[in-house]
Amino acid sequence: MHEMSIAESVLGIVEETARREGFSRVAEVRLEIGRLAAVEVEALRFCFDAVVRGSLAEGAALAIEETPGTAWCFGCNDTVSVDSRGEPCPRCGGARLQVSGGTDMRVKDLVGS
Ligand SMILES: [Zn+2]
Predict the structure, then answer these.
(1) Which of 30, 51, 54, 110 could make an S-S bridge to 63, C-beta 3.0–4.6 Å?
(2) How remote is the CA of residue 97 from the centroid of ligand 1, in Å?
(3) For domain 2-71+102-112, is the CATH number 3.30.2320.50?
(4) Angle between helices 41-51 and 2-21 (to 10 degrees)
């Protein structure tokens, strides 16, 4: 499953950051997920709970913040916001869009102890 490998890479970042910050436990992990990153948030939560078992992030809360998707519209000559790939420009209805943001996922912050 796609979300399982994402959860594993998140755990890798969490463990590395916790070591650097000197945390012995992680209470909360804050993630930023772009609306166009093609990540199923509910599936990711489920996988995250499974992969953190036995790690210093076991039982950690997962706070997910969705960031908006953006695309460059060749019709408007401007950046517009889009909710999914392949949808027309919300402003002019044009289809010539190039996705420019909201495709990434990153670990924003950790709350540790
Ligand atoms: Zn447009």
Answers:
(1) 30
(2) 8
(3) yes
(4) 60
